[in-house]
Amino acid sequence: MNIYLPFKLFLLLWLFLFSLFANAQAETQKDSISNQLNEVVISQNKKTFKNNNGNIKVDISNSIYNSIPNTVDLLAKLPTVQISADRESISVVGKGNPLIYIDNQKAGINDLNVLSVTDIKTIEIIQNPSSKYEAEGRVVILITRKFSKKDSFKTEISEVESFKKNYNNYLGFNSSFKKNKLELKANFNYNRLNPWESHSIDYQIPTVDIASKYDVTANTKRKQYVFGAGLFYKINEDDYFSFSVNSKLQTDTFPINTITDNKNKNEEDNVVTYTDNHSKKNFVNTFLNYQKKIKSIDAQVFTGFQYSNFDQRLFTEVNNNYNDTQFELSQIRDQEFQINYFSGRIDAEKKFKNEMKLEAGGLYSAVDSKSDISIFYNETNQNELSYYDFKEENLSGYTQLSGKIKKADFSLGFRIENSKVIGKFRTDALPLLDKNYTNFFPKAQFSFPLDSIKSISVNYARSISRPNYSSLSQGSTYINPYFLYARNINLGPTIINEISTTFQYHDKSVKFSFTKAKDPVYSNFTFDDQNNIMTFKDVNFDKSSGFTVDFTLPFSYKLWTTTNSLLFILEKVEDDSAVFLASKPYSYYSSTNEFKLPKEYALVLNFWGLTKQYTGVFETAPRFVVDMAVSKTFFKNWNCTLSFNNIFKNNIQTEQFTINGINSKARYVVDNQEISLAIKYSFGKIKETKFIEKSIDENQNRIR
Predict the structure, then answer these.
(1) Which of 91, 273, 296, 324 could serve as a FRET partner for 302 with CA atoms 20 to 30 Å apart?
(2) Residues forming beta bridges with residue 261, ordered by sequence position
(3) Is the pLDDT of residue 37 over 70?
(4) Band of the pLDDT at 24, cuts 50, 70, 90?
(5) Coil, strand or helix: which one is 383?
(6) From residue 397, how far is each of 348, 441, 513 by CA, in Å?
(7) Is 691 helix (H, G, I), strand (E, B) or coil?
(8) Which residues are registered as beta bridge partners of 420?
(9) CA–CA separation, 526 and 534 (whole Å)
(10) Mind listing the pLDDT tens digit for each residue in 535-549?
(11) What is the Cα–Cα distance from 117 to 102, expressed in whole angstroms?
């Protein structure tokens, strides 16, 4: 039994009774304060989803989505956004890995894990980002946080009970205080999670007469402490200063059980592998931002600094049982990985009277990572030590001119990025990697209105996709005596060219795009015939290309609002080491349906799917997922959301391919069928204001 459950139930009961008492008191005193205004409540019907030229903007703060316990799960609910099975990467269908921004600063998956959903105002998927954003990525996910406009104090306490294959619990506290020009924020979350995962791979190597199949399952016990604090000071109408720090401390204990049938010529073995794993992942991130309007030249300048530290350690003890004999110690693996990241940026914007806008800026970032591995081999009684250091510096600058000529809108810009990379084992005299390269990334967009409700736009962009820093370390995961998952210190970036055109009619759009990529990253097998070990890791393939037709179709009728995305994709991946299977069109479809019901009920029904995919080298099975949630607000202060995710339990992903003469069929079982109950209690006070604040575009600092 969960010993914290009675305490949490008591806490929720106490808050419920407190809410009833507070509401009763408010009714009693209503007549005596008729001449005073202590709280202003504005109720309006806002569209949760908005579409502009294929860019989808989602209102989080005023929708049922603000009850989702963490930001990564929130993104998974958005159209075209996909979360990997290990929850370590995000992709957008037809676009690849997105560039993620939180307000004015670039962010990553670790930043999302420490960002409270309560702090999010909107999320926008920008299909054609301007040169102002880094060239890394063909699509931007822009997260805008919310700040109070009135003096106020507000606190939210949330509790989420989640039932997947195992029980999971999220307890959260979020508070904000605003007085005059100063706003303070703080949040704390304690999560007890028990994720489960399973997968199997069946592979054959005909040239050496090897056939092997393994099934692996893992049950994890995870503790997470997520906390943060922030300060926002509005100097005047145009200038502000902000500072925030966020952190996540995580510990995992996860035994992994693997059953392997391996046939090497005439020799057959059945091996049961038990690995006892203990892991810690600690992350801290700080942002410092300052915005200033120079009134003498009517220009706006933004400067921002960021520092992040990620520290991970994995300790593994491996035991094998060959052919139903007994378990014997095989290896003890101790792996450490640390990243220090710093960046500083400046953006300047000048508007002219003839509706022209000139933007320019620069960014500097530096990364220093260390990857240390110690492996003890019990059979030989020997230790293997390896220490690898990686350093990268990026310096970039951009300029962009946008405006209107007659009725046509245009945006022309370019970005230049210089990268210096050094990778070296500490025992080597010379570095393994020593790169210094400069890339030029032009971007152009033209939009032509046909009439008041129809327009056509044309876009060209050149971009780059870089592997994350964890992928560039020397870490590996032991599966069985014949199979390893490994990272690749030799991974290189991918250069992508894209041209597209979009037709917009009212709030509906259709987009046609064609892309070509050089050195795309995909999974690959390599076999060590000396040690009889298969290694599975990401490598750079030769090239890929794709053609996409993307329909975005929002619709509203009375209490029903729906946003539908339909993509038709023809993708072709090519590499000399891989067998070309087939390249056939496939489709992705998603539909988000929200129903505003009487008595403050809200119902959301989401579904999405992918048809069978033939992308040249890879063949992937179809998928279909249905989610549903119902939300109700009680006594103004209480919100309760009951969610059903992956109702039909379509949680199996399969993929097959042939690379380097190795035939592979993989099967992944994702633990995403869930029933969850989220309860949120809010209390506080909003003070009456005596002035009318000007309406300001919330995205003025993120001009596309």
Answers:
(1) 91
(2) 213, 270
(3) no
(4) very low
(5) strand
(6) 12, 11, 27
(7) coil
(8) 393, 436
(9) 6
(10) 999 999 999 999 999
(11) 12
Looking at residue 678, its pLDDT comes to: 92
Q: Is 3 left (phi over 0), alpha (psi -120 to 50) or beta?
A: alpha
Do 362 and 345 form a contact (C-beta atoms < 8 A)?
Answer: yes
Cα 340 to Cα 337: distance, rounded to the nearest angstrom? 11
In the predicted structure, residue 36 carries a pLDDT above the cut 90? no
Torsions phi, psi for 78 (to 5 deg): -85, 150
Copy the structure tokens of residue 598. 């009487």
Element (H, E) at 564: strand 560-574
Residue of 389, 393, 343, 385 whose CA lies nearest to 369: 389
Helix (H), strand (E), coil (C) string for 484-507: EEECCCCCCCEEEEEEEEEEEECC
Tokens 């963490």 sit on residue: 70
List of residues 6+ apart from 373 with CB closer than 8 A: 333, 334, 335, 336, 384, 385, 386, 387, 474, 475, 476
CB-based burial label for 453 (10 Å; 0-12, 13-18, 19+): exposed
- Per DSSP, what are the bridge partners of residue 372? 336, 387
Host H or E run for residue 11? helix 5-28
205: amino acid identity, one letter: I
Mapped onto helix, strand or coil, the DSSP state of residue 599 is coil
Spell out the residues 6+ positions from residue 312 whose beta carbon is closer than 8 angstroms to its own: 279, 280, 281, 282, 336, 337, 338
Nearest to 548 by CA among 1, 92, 236: 92
Of the listed ranges 27-36, 531-540, 569-578, the one predicted with least confidence: 27-36
pLDDT, residue 687, reads: 65
When mean pLDDT is compared across 26-35, 159-168, 267-276, 284-293, the lowest value belongs to 26-35
Q: Compute φ and ψ for 32, nearest 5 degrees.
A: -75, -15
Least confident segment among 133-142, 218-227, 324-333, 359-368: 133-142
- Alpha-carbon gap, residue 584 to 239, rounded angstroms: 53
Q: What are the structure tokens assigned to 431, written together? A: 């570095």
In the block, residue with structure tokens 């952190």: 247
DSSP characters over 111-150: HHHHS-GGGEEEEEEESS--TTS-SB-SSEEEEEE---SS
Of 122, 75, 126, nearest to 103 (Cα)?
122
| pLDDT at residue 445 greater than cutoff 80 | yes
Task: Supply the pLDDT for residue 686.
Answer: 64
